[in-house]
Request: fold
Amino acid sequence: MGFSLIVLLIATFTDWKWRIIPDWLTYPSMVVALLYHYVHDQLGHSVFGGLFVLSMLLGLSFFVQDG
Reply:
């Protein structure tokens, strides 16, 4: 919970100030989230959710101009 809050605060500040969320913040957060779900035996749900969102965004990109 503490890690997520710190990451969220940093992401909020950098997005507000420079309108970008840096990769050095995003990629480690994804790794920590996957490790958390692996430890709590929910990795399958995480991967399925990620693939579902990916398929929705890819599908949307085919129907939106300049997607």
Remarks:
- Residues 24-67 form one domain.
- Residues 43-63 form the longest helix (21 residues).
